[in-house]
Amino acid sequence: MAVTDIATRTYDHSWRLDPIVRSLLDTDFYKLLMLQMIRHQHPDLPVTFSLMNRSRAVRLADCIDEAELRAQLDHARSLRFTKKELIWLAGNSFYGQARMFAPDFLAWLAEFRLPDYDLRRVDGQYELHFHGPWTHSSMWEIPALSIINELRARAATRDRGRFALDVLYARAKAKLWEKVERLRQLPDLRLTDFGTRRRHGFLWQRWCVEACKEGLGERFIGTSNVLLAMDADLEAIGTNAHELPMVEAALAEDDAALAGAPYRVLRQWQAHYGGNLLIALPDAFGTTAFLEHAPDWVADWTGFRPDSLPPIAAGEQIIAWWQARGRDPRTKLLIFSDGMDVDSIEACYRHFAGRVRLSFGWGTNLTNDFRGCDPEGGHALDPISLVCKVTEVDGRPAVKLSDNPEKATGDPEAIARYLRVFGARGHQRAAVEV
Amino acid sequence: MAVTDIATRTYDHSWRLDPIVRSLLDTDFYKLLMLQMIRHQHPDLPVTFSLMNRSRAVRLADCIDEAELRAQLDHARSLRFTKKELIWLAGNSFYGQARMFAPDFLAWLAEFRLPDYDLRRVDGQYELHFHGPWTHSSMWEIPALSIINELRARAATRDRGRFALDVLYARAKAKLWEKVERLRQLPDLRLTDFGTRRRHGFLWQRWCVEACKEGLGERFIGTSNVLLAMDADLEAIGTNAHELPMVEAALAEDDAALAGAPYRVLRQWQAHYGGNLLIALPDAFGTTAFLEHAPDWVADWTGFRPDSLPPIAAGEQIIAWWQARGRDPRTKLLIFSDGMDVDSIEACYRHFAGRVRLSFGWGTNLTNDFRGCDPEGGHALDPISLVCKVTEVDGRPAVKLSDNPEKATGDPEAIARYLRVFGARGHQRAAVEV
C-alpha cells in the first residue's frame, strides 16, 4: 500500500508560491567580497545591471509567464539576511582568514534588501533592468539569473508525466555521476561549483554539489554558492568579476584614464584582500592588452582567471608573461571557469601538469547539463547563455570587450572607443554555447 | 499512480543506523552554560552520572534491544561540534548578550567528545553509568535520556501497520494542537519547550516546536534544545540544574559546609552570568530550608525555578519570602517546569496574574504526550519518569532531596545525613508521573 501524507500533498498542491530564491545567501560568494569593497569605493554610484539573453533563438517571454516571473522577483525582494546567516558570515573563516567581513559591513547587510526591478516584454524577450546604487543593483545579478533559468526549466517540465520526469532526472544524475567518475581519476584536481547562476534549479544544484562532495572528496574544494557552503560545511569560493573593471572604465574621464582602469581596480582590491584572493581577471578589455601594459606588481598577484580565450592558449600566454617577468609559474595559480566540462578540464589538467597550480570553476555543465536526458527529446532543457551585466554607470555606457567578440557587451560606439584604446590583438571569435 | 523514489526507499530499508542524536547541540542549553562554569571551577573533578528509571514497572531492558542501545550510544560518541555550530555559538546572542561563550571555552568544545559509558542489564532494567570528569559525564545526561526514550518509542511502534501509525500521529498532532489553541487564549503567556530529554523522538520534538512557533507566536519564547534553536532561529533557553548544588554538597567536608553548599554555587554562578540567567533552583535539598537560610543577596536574583512542590504553593512561598525581604515580586520571575501541562499552566497563569512575572518550561507533556493516541490501546507509548543524575563525586555519594521524597536520589545513609542537616519541613510526598 502506498501512503500519501495528506497534509503535505494538500499543501504541495495549494501553496501560493514555490520560491526559487529563499535566502540572500543563495548567491555567489564573490558578490559579497566585491560588495564590501564597492561600499567603500563607491557607496552611492548609480549603476544599472541588465539581463542579456545571448541565445536569441530562445524566446524567453514566450516560455516564461510574466506574472510568475514577477512573483519570484517580488519574493526575492522580500528577503533579508537572517540572524543565523549573518552570524555565520561574521564567524566563519573564508580563504583561511577570520573576520573577512567587517562589523560595519555586516550591520549594513542586516538592513539590505534588493531594489526594485524594471521588467518589460519586448519581441518575445524580457527586458529586465536593475537600477540603483551599485551596492544594490549588483546583488540582483545572481538571483535574477537563477530565477529565470529555473522558471524556464519549470515551464519545460510542466505537465510532464511522472515517468517522464523520473527518467529525466535519472538520466541527468547518471550523466553527472559519469563525469564525477572521470574527474576522480585526476589525483590533484581542484574543482569548485560555479553553477548557481546557470542552474537547472536550486534543488538540482544542491544534488550536484552533494554528489561532487561525496564522489570527488578532497578534489572538490567548495562552491561559489554561499548558502550551500554554509549548509554543507564547504568552502565558499570566489574572488571578483568583470563588473569591477567595467565600472572603473566607464568612470574614466579620458582615454588615458580608461587605459589605466583595469589596474586601478586591482590596486583597490589588494587594499582590501590578500593571498589566494589576489586573482585577476585579465580579459575584460582583452588579455593581450592587459598583460602588455600591466605594471610589474601585477605579476606578484597569486594568479589569473582567464575567462574568454580557449583555456590552454590563455594559460600559455599567461605563463609566458610570468616567465618574462621573472616569476615562477609553479608558484602561481590559474583558475579556468569559462564553459568548462570534463573534456576541457582533463585537457587542461594534463597539459599544465607540474607547470602551474590549477583550479577549475565548473558552472553550467555541472548544474545544468540535461542535454540528451529528456525522454521527449527536443532542447527545452538545454542550457542557454544568459548573463546579467553592468550596462550603465552614472549615465555613461559600460563596455566589456573580452577576448571573444561574441561575448562583448555595450553599445557599438562605446565598443569602438574601447577597441581604439585597448586594441584587438589576441581576440578570437568563438561561438558562445553556455 | 503512486511513485516511490527507489533510491530513497532502498536507502531507507538498508541503512546501518538511524541515529537518534545527530549533533552535540541536540542537548539542553543550560548544559553549555553550566559546562563553561564547571570547566573553571572543577576542570578535573570525577563525577558519575547514572540512569534512573522511576517508572520501575516499565522493564526497559525487555523492550529496548541492548545492541541497538549500544549502537546509538556509540554513534553519539562519534559526534563533534561542527564548524557551523561553533560559529553559531560564538556569534549568536543568548539572553540578549553577545559572546556568552568565551573563545577558550569554544576552542575546548571543538575538541570535545562524549566519554565512554558503562552499560549492564540487571533484572529487566539497564544500569547505565557515565564516569569521567564532570565536564564530560554531565554532557551525557540529555543524549542518554533522549536515546532511551526514542528507542522505547521505536520499539513500541515497530511492526505496526501504516494505518495504525498514521492514526497514531494524527491523534497526537490533534492533541497537541488542542493544547496550543487553549494556550493561545492566554495573552501574556511566556512558554518554552523543555522537552528534549523526554521526547517521543527528535522529529516529533521538532514538529512540536514548530507547531508552538506557528500557533503561539510571541507566547512561545524559545526552546531549551540548542540545535532546534539554531535551526529555527528561536531563543535558546535555560539556566542551571540540580547537578550544581548536588556536586557542591557532595564535596562538603562537614555539615556546616554542606549547609552552605546551595549558596556557594549561586555565588559561583553570578560570577559567570547575570540578568535573566540569575534563576535559582530552590529545591535541591528542600525549598523551605533553602529560603530560611538564604543570605539576603539571594533575594536580589531575578527569580526562581520551583521544581518539585505543587506550583501554586511553591510560588506563594517564594512570593511571601520576597515580600518578607522587602523585594517587589512584580519585578521577579518564576519559572515553572515540573511536569506542567495545559491545566496547571492555566491555573498558575490565572492565580499569579499581575503579582509576579511568569514563565513556563513545558517538557514531557509537550514532546511526549501520546496518551490515548495509540489505536492499539495500551500504554507502550505513555511517557515514563526517566532521569540521569549525579550519583558520585570523587568517590563520595551525591544526594538530591527535593521537596518531594519520591524525587529524592542517593543512598539511604547519605539521604539521612542531608535530612539531618537541611530538615524536612515543607516536603510533600506526591506521585511522580513524568
Q: Can you give a write-up of this model?
A:
Chains A, B: This is Nicotinate phosphoribosyltransferase. Chains A, B: Keywords: Glycosyltransferase, Ligase, Phosphoprotein, Pyridine nucleotide biosynthesis, Transferase. Chains A, B: One of its GO terms (molecular function) is nicotinate phosphoribosyltransferase activity. Chains A, B: Catalyzes the synthesis of beta-nicotinate D-ribonucleotide from nicotinate and 5-phospho-D-ribose 1-phosphate at the expense of ATP. 2 copies of one chain form a homodimer. Chain A is α/β, with parallel strands linked by helices. Chain A is built from 18 helices and 11 strands. In chain A, a hairpin with a 2-residue loop joins strand 10 and strand 11. The longest helix of chain A is centred in the middle third of the chain and has 22 residues. The mean pLDDT of chain A is 96. At the A-B interface, helix 5 of A face helix 5 of B.
Largest sheet composition of chain A: 6 strands, parallel
Distance between the termini of chain A: 45 Å
Report strand order across the widest sheet of chain A: 5-4-9-8-7-6
In helices, the fraction of residues of chain A equals 40-55%
Strand content of chain A: 5-15%
Summarize the structure.
Chain A is α/β, with parallel strands linked by helices. Helix content of chain A is 44%, strand content 11%.
What tags apply to this protein structure?
six-stranded parallel sheet, about 45% helix, homodimer, 18 helices
Question: What's the arrangement of secondary structure elements?
Answer:
2 copies of one chain form a homodimer.
Chain A: H1 6-14, H2 29-41, E1 47-53, H3 60-63, H4 66-77, H5 83-91, H6 103-110, E2 118-122, E3 125-130, H7 134-137, H8 141-157, H9 162-183, E4 191-193, H10 202-216, E5 220-223, H11 226-231, H12 243-250, H13 255-272, E6 279-280, H14 287-293, E7 303-304, H15 311-324, E8 333-336, H16 342-352, E9 357-362, H17 364-367, E10 386-393, E11 396-397, H18 412-422
Parallel strand pairs in A: 4-5, 4-9, 6-7, 7-8, 8-9
Antiparallel strand pairs in A: 1-3, 1-10, 2-3, 10-11
Helix pairs in contact in A: 4-8, 5-6, 9-10, 12-13
